[in-house]
Design brief:
single chain, 71 residues, mainly alpha, 2 helices, 0% strand, elongated
């Protein structure tokens, strides 16, 4: 049986990927990059967690509406 990722895992991954890209794009990948990413992540993680909590029920509902149930 495959283990499903929990909400915290999803929001952590999303927040870290976004921080890596945004900080790298905004300030460049040079001295202090890891610290800048970490500072951004400390703000982004709680925001991502709340967003996943809000968006997940909407996505589940849309999937139920768009996928046929087996006969």
């Amino acid at each position: 049986r495959q283990r499903q990722m929990c909400i915290r895992d999803r929001s952590s991954i999303m927040a870290m990927l976004m921080c890596l890209v945004i900080v790298g794009t905004g300030t460049g990948v040079h001295d202090g990059y890891a610290m800048r990413v970490w500072q951004a992540y400390k703000l982004a993680m709680p925001v991502a967690f709340v967003c996943v909590l809000i968006v997940r029920p909407v996505v589940v509902r849309l999937v139920l509406l768009s996928v046929r149930q087996p006969a």
